Amino acid sequence: MRKLPKVDVVIVGVGWAGGIIASELTKQGLQVVGLERGKERKTEDYFMVHDELRYALRYDLMQDLSKETITFRGNEKVRALPMRQYGSFLLGDGLGGSGVHWNGQTFRFLPYDFEIRSKTIEKYGKNKIPAEMTLQDWGITYDQLEPYYDKFEKTTGISGEENPLGGKRSDKYPNPPMKKSPAMKMFEDATKKMNLHPYMMPSANLSQSYKNPDGIERAACQYCAYCERFGCEYGAKADPVVTVIPVAKKTGKFEIRTHSIVRRILKTGNKVTGVMYTDVTTGEEIEQPADIVVLTSYVFNNLRLLLMSNIGKPYNPVSGTGVIGKNYAYQVIKGNAVGFFNNKEFNTFAGAGALGVTLDDYNGDNFDHSNLDFIHGGIVSYTQTGMRPIQNNAVPGGGPTWGKEFKDKSLKYANRYLAVAAQGSSMPFKHHYLDLDPTYKDAYGDPLIRITFDFENQDRNLATFLAGKCADILKEMGADHIDSLKELGPYDITTYQSTHNTGGIIMGADPQTSAVNNYLQMWDVDNLFVVGASAFSHNSGYNPTDTVGALAYRAAEGIMKYHDKGGQVV
């Protein structure tokens, strides 16, 4: 194995978290190497490639599941099997990671989220939390994290308006909200009549040209509707490749090595000494020594590297001891309703990834849960992300799904239906966790990550509650026919929902129940930081990226403190 010269910091994965860490540390003068298993990416790669088949259906920006995937089971009584085709979530690959193919919906979590166990018990008593639910506070408050939210939103140029039911802001969004379509105005008017609190969705798709605090200039969104699963040809959608990575590269202290799959974290005593990776282009195994190692890859890979490198105590779902793999959570996306309009047409082919109106009246603890058999909630939104032709062909339920009548209805309702959707939170349970699969391995002979997860009564009750609220809004909007979720079945890994996987290396104030402190520094190994949604001890009713970005900025601050003084950062 070839050994390279030591650097100050090596980061594993160059997406949002890795890009932020690299830009912040190199600005402070540290020498940083970023290892990325995928290929190089730049904005020019997406010029004139509005190709739904290539990107949305054949997953051109995603990980190759024939070489590396995950295994899944609903419970411990059944054998986990590999995910052989994409469904429930999409794992990004290449420079920028999932930050390239995201929609740009950039919400802050609620103050309630960070102190969820304490706040729930304080208001409803301990019995409100099911015995199997491993709910815990994050070891940080919203007020402590708020300055880092602000920093991420200014770096990315978020376009939005203040959430009337959200946490206090130290400053407004750096850009005004996006344009409001007629359908969005219908949703806004209807929900205001219902005494709800709609607001424009915070968007990483720029509403106007913008220059951020690092001097990065980007153009305004063109509303082409090719956001989710696509790279942005204008650079209008914030992604790491057009925001933070150029800042790090400009310092001359950041080296990116693509096609580099990190397979082990190297450790001596209670310190890590670097990483071992395979150069995919040659097959060579290489050691990269470093004073500080930062894991900034996706949830599953962060966790997999810790387990394969024997760092931290693996979670045991029977005893409830250990922390690595604990509190895996996903998202409840199934609470939705579709309204069909006989005499109204909408131009739903146009849009942007984060173009929409949303409300938080049913999110967090913004409503009384005393007589409800669940905690938390979710956002309810109408989003106009663009109805691309292959993937969208809704007809009213109850009729045939093929033949002449189906075709006639497909043509009639092509531009006459709107979906109001909820995105619900996901609470952690003792028997939902991540570990190494004992049977299946990747192309290099390393074990795959195994997910053990299913929807609980908490999720089923939440989903039907939110679906009912969505249907009520569509009724107020004047829909002639409404189809909505009536019952949430078992979790289905074959149907797309979101790529909002969280947990496994959770943050907290106690080393017995968490893996990292609130700077995302490992309790067990103080020169190892693990940054990303793997730190979430539950998943909120929002998209995770704003919180990932905020935590990354805080982690960068913690890394510098460690670099200067050593020891556990406080």
From TrEMBL:
Pfam families linked to this entry: GMC_oxred_C (PF05199), GMC_oxred_N (PF00732)
The protein's Enzyme Commission number: 1.1.99.3
GO terms, molecular function: gluconate 2-dehydrogenase (acceptor) activity
Domain Glucose-methanol-choline oxidoreductase N-terminal, first and last residues per copy: 142-329
InterPro entries the record matches: FAD/NAD-bd_sf, GMC_OxRdtase_N, GMC_OxRtase_C
Keyword annotations of the record: FAD, Flavoprotein, Oxidoreductase
Transmembrane regions listed in the UniProt entry: none
Superkingdom of source: Bacteria
Domain Glucose-methanol-choline oxidoreductase C-terminal residues, every copy: 434-552
Region feature (Disordered): 156-177
Family assignment from sequence similarity: Belongs to the GMC oxidoreductase family.
Record-linked PANTHER family: LONG-CHAIN-ALCOHOL OXIDASE (PTHR46056:SF12)
Protein name (Swiss-Prot/TrEMBL): Gluconate 2-dehydrogenase alpha chain
